[in-house]
């Protein structure tokens, strides 16, 4: 999630656990702890694909954060918070740190909760990385806690409860869309194929669906406001890797994306795209991984991230109209170079 959400979450958790000891300093410390795991974004792993798949790695692992919390609690109790019991201080620090990756695991990007174990990132994909309906009900009570200090802990608890309820709603909404997708593909050649479902930006009403189908994939939008349950699928070419063997980096990329990737020739370059993130009209995680020489032979190159460019102005209001159930405008949400290519 975004830094504001994580800071608000850390502050709310710290304030709730602190109880009568809650103060502006505690809230600020919780906010700082809540954003601490994202400092790994400052690390450079050598290339943009590695930077992507290794983000939310060791710094988000429960196997790292819990021992780190223990060490930090011992040091903090000895030199700063001497009036606190070690147990309460450990619980505050651990909760403020660990809730960060747990919240991240509800997004599409995924979180390596169990690093260094060789297991896929946890990516529930029920909430967009920025969602005001999650953040504001928690942020407003936390800010109020700075003013009404006698009720600070209760305010933090209220904010945390409201945001958690919304997170629970996101799972219910996702389940409703999943049932609808299964009904749409039942009895077709898409039945049983890998499916990816995620909310569109800033809401949990309009959802994006991607279904893999050998050399192509099908993308559609489904809103909880739709009167017609039929999903208007858009076929798109997945492309192929032109070499007999994939590099370890590409293998890791496909593992990270659970196979939801697309290869596409753009000029003399071959790009690979994470199909889970963004939409057909805007896919931010696209990388050039090979280039074609004058002899028409492909050569693997150092990965370079492609600038996705700005969203088209007409697509933003179209997205909101689609959220409200206007199914006739699905085509407006596609880039003419990407959609309906078969």
From TrEMBL:
One of its GO terms (molecular function) is hydrolase activity. The chain crosses the membrane at residues 58-76, 83-103, 123-148, 155-177. The keyword Hydrolase applies. Coiled coil: none annotated. The keyword Cell inner membrane does not apply. It holds the Pfam family YdjM. Keywords: Hydrolase, Membrane, Transmembrane, Transmembrane helix. This is Metal-dependent hydrolase. It comes from Enterovibrio qingdaonensis.
